[in-house]
Write a structure and sequence with these properties.
486 residues; mainly beta; six-stranded antiparallel β-sheet; 33 strands; 4% helix
């Protein structure tokens, strides 16, 4: 009989869903712009069976893919599990077989050596397939419309890394998917790779390199000429695994690095720039002006992940976990290893940054992110697994310095936004911002659609669901033209 732990990871805002289904022609409040034709895929962790351990992590759940299909002012909804090897084996056994997050030593002996992926972090369409990604494993391929699972890929044997990033970038100039891996030779290993995949799905390159220390490398940056890897000391080692501690822990005594390598380079061409200790995770974008590389990322003074506690036993300090969009600038041709500058770009406290992805790798004029405003009333039971109560969308105009915000009200929180162009050739930033808004008092979710340049005016329309989706991680839009490749 299913019974989920009475812990923060499984109660309140993080109650389980475990539901697969379809809704044709979803209820709409307001209007769905007729220009929106395509798909929005997002994912949340959702254990199909009770976890083996009561202290299991929220993000150790099976990937549940949600699909919003936009066509001619109407929206259909579909939701399916990503049928990983783990999901299939546990489905057959009718109970959990895989143990703690990234700890194979806690698995049932019957699944020793199996791929442990949950495919629960990012869905993104490329080369006619939906890539369902988790950074500790290979990509899982699915059909972007039916959500049928095809299986894991190693790109016809060309990918020798055991892992693949959950945050690939699509280069709008070449059409390539740019990716990387860490822990490429297995848990707690220092080897990494940089990869590029063609618009038709062929692995074009796999460049191996080592990093100064082993840590969580959740995201990265790509410019027209360089790839950039930020190392933050969310460290891991086999001692932690053997003691069944949280796989990662934050070390405030270690420096932060930014590695920069030419996209046509090799490991020997990597340059590592060094910064005093800080915390950052998701990258808004990166771009270069000659040898000068600009890297935009929300930065906090201290650990933002209480579920990966301080390795020295220091308590979590929420007041030091406030992150602000910051631009790091380094010069690849510099003889030193210091940052040229680190400049805060906004006074909005937030995370999950996004841009107009047609300008990925290029200088971006606009950006959006989730914002936490603790001064506003909140009627819900709590925030995300991190404790963040993300109740606003934020907009930044990097040309004029203008900022604006939209508050979702006291009963709701917001999931990661995504920018959708008004048309394929519309100017940068001209389009819509879509984001799931979870009413955690009345227990339903709606996909809000806002004018990306006027978010303060609130939603133009909402796609309403008759239930509340579990808090998710990431999502991406695919234009109808991309789906024609399917």
């Amino acid at each position: 009989m299913a019974h989920f732990p009475e812990t923060r990871a499984f109660t309140g805002i993080l109650n389980m869903l475990r539901f697969e289904g379809d809704i044709k022609d979803c209820e709409v409040e307001g209007e769905i712009p007729s220009q929106l034709n395509g798909t929005f895929h997002r994912v949340h962790p959702d254990q199909q069976f009770s976890p083996k351990f009561d202290d299991d992590q929220f993000f150790n759940g099976d990937g549940m893919i949600s699909l919003f299909r936009f066509r001619n002012g109407k929206v259909d909804f579909k939701q399916r599990y990503a049928q990983t090897d783990k999901w299939k084996l546990e489905r057959e056994a009718e109970h959990a077989l895989f143990g703690a997050y990234r700890n194979p030593l806690t698995d049932d002996p019957s699944v020793k050596g199996q791929v442990r992926s949950t495919a629960n972090t990012t869905p993104i369409v490329h080369a006619g397939k939906l890539f369902a990604l988790k950074e500790d494993s290979p990509p899982l391929l699915m059909d972007p419309l039916s959500l049928e699972t095809f299986g894991f890929t190693d790109f016809d044997g060309k990918m020798t890394s055991e892992t693949f990033t959950a945050h690939p970038k699509i280069d709008p100039i070449t059409g390539n998917m740019v990716a990387f891996s860490y822990g490429a030779k297995g848990l707690c290993t220092k080897e990494c790779t940089y990869m590029e995949i063609s618009p038709t799905g062929e692995l074009l390159k796999e460049v191996w390199f080592d990093v100064p220390y082993t840590c969580m490398m959740h995201d990265f940056g790509v410019t027209e000429d360089y790839v950039c890897f930020h190392l933050v000391p969310i460290i891991c080692n086999w001692e932690r695994v053997e003691k069944r501690m949280p796989y990662f822990g934050f070390d405030t005594t270690m420096p932060v690095y930014l590695g920069v390598m030419p996209r046509d380079g090799e490991a020997k061409d990597m340059k590592w720039f060094k910064s005093p200790n800080l915390f950052c995770s998701h990258v808004m974008n990166a771009f270069n002006d000659g040898s000068k590389v600009h890297f935009d990322v929300p930065v906090a003074k201290n650990n933002m992940f209480p579920f990966f506690p301080d390795v020295h036993g220091n308590p979590y300090k929420p007041e030091e976990a406030a992150s602000y969009m910051t631009r790091w600038t380094v010069d690849y041709n510099s003889k030193g290893d210091e940052f040229e500058s680190s400049k805060r770009m906004t006074d909005m406290m937030g995370e999950f940054p996004r841009i107009d992805d047609r300008y990925a790798t290029q200088q971006h004029d606009y950006g959006w992110l989730l914002v936490m405003d603790q001064s506003l009333p909140f009627n819900g039971p709590g925030g995300r697994a991190s404790g963040l109560m993300l109740n606003k969308l934020g907009y930044m105009d990097f040309l004029t310095g203008k900022q604006s915000e939209w508050w979702c009200g006291p009963d709701s929180v917001i999931q990661e936004p995504c920018f959708v162009p008004r048309s394929p050739d519309s100017p940068q930033g001209d389009g819509y911002l879509i984001a799931l808004v979870d009413d955690i008092v009345n227990n339903y979710s709606s996909l809000a659609i806002l004018d990306a340049q006027a978010i303060e005016e609130g939603p133009i329309g909402k796609v309403k669901l008759p239930f509340r989706l579990r808090q998710g991680l990431h999502g991406n839009w695919a234009d109808e033209r991309k789906l024609s490749q399917v």
